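### Sample
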Amino acid sequence: MTFEEVLPKLKAGQRAVRGGWGGGEEYITLVSGQSYESIAVTPYFLIKVQGEGYSVWEPTGCDALAMDWTLVCRPARRTRRFGGTSRVSGSL
């Protein structure tokens, strides 16, 4: 997939990664709808790197023109039991 094809899916909450990345990069995600000190924060990308956590990310020219983007499935949601009822934790 191209970045152009992946971008609407990122906006819809999905995660993506480039096939050409060979390190610990797990995925990128778009963060939106947040505020800080009651002021809206503009949307931004985060990259999840194995063993390091999250960092702010922006695509390079190579990333924007690459054709090796793939979508990343989110891990299965965990179910916890509380007093005989099930509650699902995690995000979609």
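Residues 85-92 have pLDDT under 50 and may be disordered. This sample (DUF2829 domain-containing protein) is used throughout the tutorial notebook.
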